[in-house]
Every structure is written in C-alpha cells, then in structure tokens.
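As a warm-up, study this chain.
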Amino acid sequence: MNKDYIEKLLKKLNIMKDEYYIVGSSAMVIRGIRDIAGDLDLCMTEKAFEELKTRYNIEKTNKGYDNLYKLNDEIEFFVNSKEKFKMEYVHGWPLEDIHVLLDFKLKRNDEKDQKDIIRIKKYLENHDKDPLT
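Now compare it with the structure written out below.
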C-alpha cells in the first residue's frame, strides 16, 4: 500500500475525527519514511469501534491480542482508551507518535524491523528530534 492508497482507505472508512490514529508501517508511509506498507493498522477508541461495527463485519484476529480486530485482509485495528493514545498529526493525519513506534521496533527487534529502525532514526535526525537509543 502506498500513501495514496492508504489515504483512500482512510477516507472510505470515515472514522470519527480524534477517535483513531494510524500505527506501524502505514504511519511510516504517511510520513515518507517508507514507500509501501503491507496493511493498514489503526488504533481506535471504543466509540469509533462501535460505530464502525454498524457499517462493517468486523472479526477478532487470531494473533493473540485481546483487543485486535480485522475488517478485512488489508485493515486491522486495536481498540484502546483515548487516555492511552500516543499520537501526533503529520500531513493532516493522526499518526502513532514516532518515538513510540521506534521504541516498539527496538523492543521487538525482528529482522523486518532493522531497516525501519534505521529509517526512523534518520527521519528523526532530519526533523531535529532526538532518536531514542
């Protein structure tokens, strides 16, 4: 998924403003850190989740998280309280805080995360922010 495709999906979903944010690789694509994401991952409030259920058939995933759901093969999302949101607006979109994303990638440290860690740190250097180490 490129940035245009992600934005098209988000517009079609039409989730209530300030009730969700984009996480993971899709947040990196919106920022320009990556060109492509494998899917669209979101975090949303219970309020947004309940509204989305009125429009779509939503399933719980089998990935071992209690609060992880999927809309289809392209879109997954976590449900969390708004008080726990760690996000920022970039290019008009609500995105996972870049430091939170970097911390997640550093902790998980899968092979697929190695390039992302380097890219995020470079992004932070170019945007006059201190990368987490």
